[in-house]
Structure formats: structure tokens, C-alpha cells
Amino acid sequence: MDEPYRIRSAVLADAPAMVAIERQCFSDPWSEASFREALTSPWTFGLVGQTARGVAGYLIGREVAGTGEVLNLAVAPGGRRRGLGGALLRGGLTALRRRKVEEVFLEVRESNHSAQALYLSHGFRPVGQRAAYYRNPKEDALVLRLALKQHA
Fold it and tell me: Where are the domains of the chain?
């Protein structure tokens, strides 16, 4: 996927493509119903990375009472290491800033070093751990936090 991409707001029609990527990327994937719920809830939002071939990645985020969370971020295996994950993350952080969020949290598998590197490069820092957070396979999650006021 050396083709260009653009980041845009996700719509309900994107849910099947998001599910397809989700199933390629995660061993315990979200259902299509979960994506549809996230895309219609007033406190969540979705972004997709669109190429000429279709959706190549996505981010789901939410905001509640001034705190943001990156719920899900994935890039199709063939499109990785080309900047799309970082572009989606930057777009998500911009959307959260617009919602007046002051801090953002996320969980990441302890073994997912490439995702951790992406988040750390954008200013996230470890603040905790959730034991056995992931189910398939069972694994702890690192909790990362970004103070947005410091990275405006």
C-alpha cells in the first residue's frame, strides 16, 4: 500500500470494512454491532484511512467528562509502516482536542511493542497495568496516558 490515503470521519457504511481489518489484526475482535454502536453514539467517534482501494485503517475514540480514550486503532497488515497509524492517531487526538479533552488514555498489549512505540512517539506515557485485560490469548495491558494540554 504505497498509495496515498486520506483521513476522514467514519460512517456506518464503513463498519464492514472496519470489521474485516479488525479480524485480520486482533485475536479477540470487535463485532460489527460494536462498531455500529461506536459510530452512532454521541460520545464516540470513528476515523478511517481511505485509499483508492478502500478503508485501510481506523481509529475509534471517545470522550466522557473531559477525558478521552483511544478504544481501538488498527491498520490492515498490508498497509503498515507507512504512516497511516500515526496519521489516524494524530487525527483522533485532534478530534479529542476539539471536544475539550484534557487527557487521553488507552490500553495496549504488553507484547505489542510496535503499537507501544507509536503511542510513546506521540507523547503517551505508561501510568499503570491491567492484569489479564486481554482474553485471547490472556495477557496484561499497559495503560498509557497523554496530557493534551502539554501537546497542543
Answer: 6-151
Rounded distance between C-alpha atoms, residue 10 and residue 55, angstroms: 10
Say which residues have a Cβ less than 8 Å from residue 68's Cβ, sequence separation at least 6.
61, 62, 96, 99, 101, 103, 104, 105, 148
CATH architecture assignment, domain 6-151: 3-Layer(aba) Sandwich (3.40)
pTM: predicted TM-score of the whole model, two decimal places: 0.92
Give the number of other Cβ atoms within 10 Å of residue 7's Cβ: 18
Reported as a single tens digit per residue, the pLDDT across 47-76 is 999 999 999 999 999 999 989 999 999 999
Those residues with Cβ within 8 angstroms of residue 81's Cβ, 6 or more apart along the chain or in another chain: none
Distance (Å, whole) CA 81 – CA 11 = 25
CA distances from 44 to 27, 36, 38, 75 (A): 23, 11, 6, 19
98-124 tens-digit pLDDT:
999 999 999 999 999 999 999 999 999
